[in-house]
Amino acid sequence: ESITLYEALHDSRKVAEARTELAWCYWRSGDNDSARILSNEALKRLTIGGNARANALIVLSFVEWAESRYKEVLRILTENAPVFDRITNHTFKGTFHNQLGITYRAIGAASKRRTDYFQRAIAEYHAADEHFKIARNLVYRAHVKNNTANVLRELGRFSEAHDYLEQARRLFIRVRDKVRV
Prior knowledge:
81% of the residues lie in helices and 0% in strands. The radius of gyration is 17 Å and the shape is globular. By secondary structure, the chain is mainly α. It has helices at residues 2-8, 12-29, 32-45, 51-66, 70-79, 81-86, 90-110, 115-135, 138-154, 158-174. The protein contains 10 helices and no strands.
């Protein structure tokens, strides 16, 4: 309904934003094809960088991740890194870096455990944590700490992994998330 209303008002940007939000819904329900189509339609209208374009790119990267198309996720994110550099929304910036981190981890694991990809993942997780810290998003920070711990575990750096798991645990305690604690 929002898309129809914004189209009647000839507000191309709002049409694109509504398509992005609908794409999130399709992705959450597991309909990745519809989510991909809507994200790409939104991106065609959002030619100028900004939070709306960043959001559409994040959705598209999640869709491709869900389809195990890790090199495509890497392409989307690296080609559009300037969009994320220019925005001021630290949650979007943190999500961008976290998504790069999980992508590097997946590629590293699939590439005979290439440690250079794991190191890149750790660097991206650190960048994500910095942005989530600025955004004061404890839940996302806890997830990033957990992600970092898993990469360190895969590298056999168990003591460091334990430290990050403990940091994640403390953050989940602060937000009273008993399941994740």
